[in-house]
Amino acid sequence: MVTHRLARAPKPKPHHLRALLGAGIVTCALSFALPAHADPGHDDLRLTAQSGTEQTERTDETEQTDEAAQSDQAEHAEQAEQAEQAGGSEQAGESEQAGEAASQQAKPAEKDKINVTAAEVLALARAQIGVRENAQGGGTKFQEWYANSQRALETIARDGGHPAAYLNAPWCAMFVSWVGEQTGARPQVGWDAYTVTHAKWFAANNRWGTEARPGAVVFFAWNGSKSIEAIQHVGFVVQDNNDGTISTIEGNTGNGLVEERIRPKYQVVGYGYPEYAS
């Protein structure tokens, strides 16, 4: 099994924290429990729910509350806080050093090529639609798998802390990683619990771009930023809808679910491109 060692997850920069606090995420700073990751309510996003072979669409309107909007913005802060708790006290310059280290990661070797198609990865991701977290933000098989994975052990050995911290952590990146692992596509999909570090791995390996492709790993920033450091959420691309939107499958979305979404492209920071089989 090929293991991609990624750079230490960067700590949140002061101006990021100030922006979050200015948006009203005071609960994060006070270490209170935050609601599960959800979509910002003002984007009028459409949600595609699947039941058997039927598909129905609805527009996310009143159910996308202000609390849900805060949750979306809070996931990035929660991820950074989780990394900080795992790593303890660190030096102020480590965030920049982590970015430099990520850029020096070697490209996946010839032996990392996979015999898995994008369609197979998307089929397994779609089969998870409806999986829901518990009231504590945990209890999913994605979190349990990651907490017991080799990658979590590497992260703990590097940063300190305990794998159990992942059991109730934001899990959108764990969902993507789990799908990659279960399909045999992990050498190309990568794995991490921190969206920023996951995106940096793609960028460092020249697998980063702005074109939506089926099976690509898509990274979001709700404010429209194109900076990798601003990434807050991740999922899989199903298709480009050619109308300024993409269809996706994401974990830890809505009210802590795996769901199929239609997203505006302006929220996309970039795409990571696994090299799937033809």
Structural notes for this entry:
With 278 residues, the protein is of the alpha+beta class. It has one domain (14-272): Alpha-Beta Complex (endopeptidase fold (from Nostoc punctiforme)), CATH 3.90.1720.10. Helices cover 35% and strands 17% of the residues. It has 10 helices and 8 strands. Helix 5 packs across helix 8 (172-183) and helix 6 (141-147) crosses helix 8.
Annotation keywords:
single chain, 278 residues, alpha+beta, endopeptidase fold (from Nostoc punctiforme), 8-stranded antiparallel beta sheet, disordered N terminus
Radius of gyration from CA coordinates: 17 Å
Along the chain, the helix and strand elements come as: HHEEHHHHHHHHEEEEEE
Structural class: alpha+beta
CATH C-level class is Alpha Beta
Number of strands: 8
Percentage beta strand = 15-25%
Low-confidence stretches: 1-38, 40-73, 83-106
Global geometry: globular
Distance between the termini: 22 Å
DSSP helix fraction: 25-40%
Mean pLDDT over all positions = 74
In total, how many domains does the architecture comprise?
Answer: 1
CATH architecture designation: Alpha-Beta Complex
Give me the CATH superfamily.
Answer: endopeptidase domain like (from Nostoc punctiforme)
Biggest beta-sheet profile: 8 strands, antiparallel
**Helical element count?**
10
Record the strand order, biggest sheet: 2-1-7-6-5-4-8-3
> The CATH topology is what?
endopeptidase fold (from Nostoc punctiforme)
